[in-house]
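hiii so um. not sure if this is the right channel but i have a protein structure encoded as C-alpha cells and i wanna go backwards to a sequence. like what aa goes where. can anyone help
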C-alpha cells in the first residue's frame, strides 16, 4: 500500500510518502505560514523523489487539526480534492495525536513509561489546544485519556498541578508547551524540547497502518477540527460588539 500524508495544522507544513517499507520521501517547511503556496509543489517533489505518480496512491492521510485555521484548510482541502479525483480513502488524524505519537517514539520516552504525555499546540490569542495520553510502551505506545480541549494556559497549568499532586508525572510537548514552558514548569510538568510540531513522517507511517486496518473515509466525510472560531470571525464579532447601536 502507498500512502501520501499531508501536514499543515501548525507552522510546519509537510508532505510524505510511505509504504510497507517505511517512509519513501518527505519534505517539511517550518515557519512562514505559507502553506497554500507550498503544499502542491511539495506533493510534486516527494512523488518525483520517490519515483511514483499520484495514480499509484492507495490512500491519503491528513492532519485535521486542531491548529491554525488557514493551514488546516489547505491540508484538508488538498486531501479532499485528491481523494475525490483519485477515488481513494482518506485517513484522518489529529495534530495532538500525531504530536503525541512522535514524542512516544522519541528516545527519552523509554524512561517515562506510565507517565502522562500532554501534547500542547499553540492556538494563538492566549489559548492552547491539548490532550492527555498515557505512555504504555506497547503498540500503539499510547493510551488516550479524554478528548482534545481548548483552554487558556492558566487552566491547563491548574490541571497539571492537580495531576502532579496526585502523583502523576506529566510530560508536555509541542509549540504551545514551549511557548508557556515557564508556566507549565511551575505547575510541575516537564517540558520536552522535541517534537515541537507534528511530524509528517510520523503521520505517514501511522496513517498507513490505519489505512491497512480499514480506517480510511471517503473524501466527502473528511472535516477539519477547529475547536474554536476562525480569527476573522472573532475579529468581526468583537468589532460588532463595540459598534454603536443605530439611534443611540
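sure thing!! here u go:
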Amino acid at each position: 500500500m502507498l500512502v501520501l500524508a499531508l501536514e499543515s495544522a501548525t507552522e510546519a507544513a509537510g508532505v510524505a510518502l510511505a509504504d510497507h517499507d517505511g517512509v519513501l520521501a518527505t519534505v517539511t517547511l517550518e515557519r512562514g505560514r505559507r502553506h497554500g503556496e507550498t503544499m502542491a509543489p511539495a506533493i510534486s517533489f516527494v512523488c518525483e523523489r520517490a519515483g511514483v505518480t499520484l495514480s499509484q496512491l492507495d490512500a491519503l492521510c491528513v492532519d485535521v487539526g486542531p491548529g491554525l485555521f488557514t493551514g488546516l484548510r489547505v491540508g484538508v482541502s488538498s486531501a479532499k480534492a485528491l481523494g475525490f479525483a483519485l477515488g481513494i480513502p482518506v485517513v484522518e488524524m489529529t495534530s495532538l495525536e500525531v504530536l503525541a505519537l512522535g514524542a512516544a517514539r522519541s528516545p527519552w520516552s523509554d524512561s517515562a513509561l506510565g507517565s502522562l504525555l500532554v501534547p500542547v499546540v499553540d492556538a494563538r490569542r492566549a489559548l492552547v489546544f491539548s490532550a492527555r495520553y498515557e505512555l504504555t510502551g506497547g503498540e500503539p505506545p499510547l493510551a488516550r485519556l479524554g478528548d482534545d480541549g481548548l483552554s487558556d494556559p492558566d487552566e491547563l497549568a491548574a490541571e497539571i498541578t492537580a495531576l502532579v499532586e496526585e502523583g502523576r508525572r506529566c510530560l508536555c510537548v509541542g509549540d504551545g508547551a514551549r511557548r508557556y514552558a515557564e508556566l507549565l514548569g511551575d505547575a510541575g510538568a516537564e517540558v520536552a524540547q522535541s517534537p515541537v510540531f507534528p511530524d509528517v513522517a510520523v503521520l505517514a507511517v501511522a496513517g498507513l497502518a490505519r489505512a491497512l486496518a480499514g480506517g480510511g473515509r471517503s473524501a466527502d466525510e473528511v472535516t477539519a477540527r477547529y475547536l474554536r472560531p476562525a480569527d476573522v470571525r472573532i475579529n468581526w464579532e468583537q468589532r460588532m460588539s463595540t459598534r454603536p447601536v443605530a439611534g443611540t
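oh and The longest helix spans residues 69-86.
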